[in-house]
Amino acid sequence: MRHLKTEEWVKIFNAYDNFKNRKISKFEFEQISFSIRQNYWNKGSLKRMLRKRKMYHLNMNIQSKTGKASKKGKGVGRKKRKALDYTWIDTLKDDEKDAVIKYYYRIFSENNIDADIKNIKEIEKLSSSNKAKILLIAKSTYYEKLKVKKIEKQKYIKHEEVIRQSFMDNKMRYGRRRLSKYLFLTYNIKVNPRTLENYMKRLNLFTFVRRKKRQKNTKILMLSLRIWFKEIIIQRIIQFTQLM
Hints:
single chain; mainly alpha; 3 domains
């Protein structure tokens, strides 16, 4: 539904006042409002209309601001994209121009920023700003791509083979505490259980968990106890009657 203008709201308010004063019927009020709103009233929309009517009588602004952009001052908002300018190539020296031609010749069939930067790194005659202009990227992006990713070094695990062998000797059933104690008693190697846990995770050593023995059903046990107690009571009653 579209947003109504102030004049249209005033017509609806006047029709509603006439309906309240019994000058027109409810049907006529709905017809007038439908011709303006192109929609019938429901509980929510009627409540909003009465709220706007109250605001109008209090000389408040009832014009909807939805969809209207705020006034923008100078320098506000997204900057316009600069048109591509290749006149700077004319300012280069002859050897620099040759470097640009060789670069474009090498990457003509490629469309990858990483590959472009890899090739353009080899051209030492051009400055970084000129290289960024060729790639049509910002200088900050160019420098970010030049950063070499650090190779993660594999951390050294002390007594790796002994830990692995001890774990296998105990049939993969020893956790960090028992294995730490085993290493100390067998090989005189002191390893903190928490440190040993990290070693075991990195070596993919996971304990073999044994299943618990199946416990008897408590209901069957209680039923058998009741039967046993009943038999004892019956025997006692029989013995008592024989004595009498």
